[in-house]
Amino acid sequence: MEEKDTNPKDSVGVAKAPMSVLSAPVLLEEGLVMMGGARKYGRHNFRGVGVKASVYYDAFMRHVMAWWEGEDLDPESGLHHLAHARASLGVIRDAEIRGNWGDDRPPKTDFNWVGEANILAEEVIEKYPESKEPYTQLKVKLEKVADEDDGYELGGPCDVSPEVHD
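Request: output the structure for the sequence above.
Response:
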């Protein structure tokens, strides 16, 4: 069988919206969250009755904040908080596309508040150019293990001199 340099469909297919750039495991997790919602409230209920943006924004924020504070899995569903957050955003975006949403966002901020905040952040960085190492969950765990093993703090000063500690 002779191989062609290119498949004629390639030139057409590469110019269309790609699906191959999406993470299959992430999509499946989001699908499981949506499946739970479908079983609890009815499949595509949000399309039939519409949504209030604030309800799904609030859910998104709660899931992201729970994840940020170290809780990976939602206690009710057992699924990842970030999958729940993605599902919340997906519902809002679907409703926007369909024109089936209540835009109950607050009045728009008319000035470049993000840009202004970034300028202030630059000023803070200039004021404190040598940033201290952050305290992270991983660092806390590693320090605890190191303290239990030999009394040394990982990445920090040692309280015991090397001559005394074997």
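The first strand starts at residue 51 and ends at 52.
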